[in-house]
Write a structure and sequence with these properties.
By secondary structure, the chain is mostly helical. The chain is 65% helix and 4% strand.
Length: 332
């Protein structure tokens, strides 16, 4: 197979006679060619990787060791390899289903094609129709199509809002985030927010409800991770309704999220602290007068070894430096 190379006539950046419009047009044309070339390369890399993987599955040890070694020899990470395989699978699906022809793929930028591959089948069909017409497809256009499709088809959006999206009274790009956040919520909360938008189908309400849905999902997700809330003498849903009523849902959501973070951090801290004490005891037993520097290392670490842990926040001798201490105890 003959070797080829990309050759461009790039504009002279020092040519004062060349207008900014013509300069940008020439540069953009070259960039799009590189983008399409990069996309085709990645699709074929994915197909190659898929072929190697499937071969190793058939004749390997069943654990994929041969494929991982193949990747290691070529300095390819496992995650990158499977991303390329996923891209190749998506390309083959779009081609085999008849949505696209190989020529149509050249109409996509790389990021637009990846975005299309991740989209719903209906969105893929709509974007493919644009590509088949010979129009260049960017990621922004794919997202716009996805937003419009979400706005017009989701059951979570009231008809009044759908009509405003259809006549572009409210841009569809504001509706997709609401659908995305509402999908994370239980049906009861979905109904409440849907009613709120239905009563006031305007842009300000849409933005407010989207923020509420985001805080709600954050609140509920964090609450499920906080052990203290499992035995609390209160109703989590009523607490949520009260936060909504007094307008502090954002603060309540962050409060619960921070509580979850503290519990998780405390568990990690305790595990690390126990391991540190075990290791320090081992080093102390193995060291002695012949290892003064090793003993000095233990002394330097002593503020965080033992029941009382002492940590300095900020740089030494700085005006904002402070020391915090806490005591770790074990109870059954």
């Amino acid at each position: 197979m003959a070797m080829g190379e990309l050759v461009f006539e790039l504009p002279d950046p020092n040519d004062e006679a060349l207008s900014d419009y013509d300069f940008n047009r020439q540069v953009e044309a070259a960039w799009q060619v590189c983008d399409r070339f990069d996309l085709q390369t990645d699709i074929w890399r994915g197909r190659i990787l898929r072929t190697v993987r499937d071969r190793e599955k058939r004749g390997g040890d069943g654990r994929g060791t041969g494929f991982l070694n193949w990747l290691k020899e070529r300095e390819i990470t496992k995650s990158h390899a499977y991303n390329l395989i996923e891209l190749a699978d998506s390309a083959d699906h779009l081609l085999d289903s008849g949505m696209l022809t190989p020529k149509d793929v050249n109409q996509f930028s790389k990021r637009a094609f990846v975005e299309t591959a991740k989209a719903a089948p209906e969105v893929q069909q709509l974007v493919s129709d644009v590509a088949r017409k010979g129009d260049h497809v960017t990621r922004r256009e794919v997202r716009q199509v996805a937003n419009e499709w979400a706005a017009m088809t989701s059951d979570l959006i009231p008809e009044t809002l759908r009509e405003k999206a259809a006549n572009n009274t409210i841009p569809s790009r504001y509706i997709a985030p609401l659908v995305k956040e509402m999908e994370k919520l239980p049906p009861t909360h979905q109904t409440t927010l849907k009613t709120e938008v239905e009563l006031n189908p305007d842009l300000d309400t849409l933005k407010q409800v989207t923020a509420e849905a985001r805080y709600l999902s954050k609140y509920l997700a964090s609450a499920n991770q906080v052990q203290l809330l499992e035995t609390g003498d209160f109703d989590l849903e009523l607490a949520l309704e009260e936060a909504l009523r007094v307008g502090c849902l954002n603060s309540a959501a962050d409060m619960v999220a921070q509580a979850a973070l503290i519990e998780q951090t405390a568990a990690k801290l305790y595990t690390a602290w126990k391991r540190l004490n075990q290791l320090s005891e081992r080093v102390y037993v193995d060291s002695g007068d012949s290892t003064p520097n090793l003993r000095a290392l233990l002394t330097a670490l002593s503020p965080i070894i033992g029941d009382t842990v002492q940590v300095r926040l900020g740089e030494l001798n700085s005006a904002t430096s402070q020391t915090i201490r806490w005591r770790l105890t074990e109870e059954d």
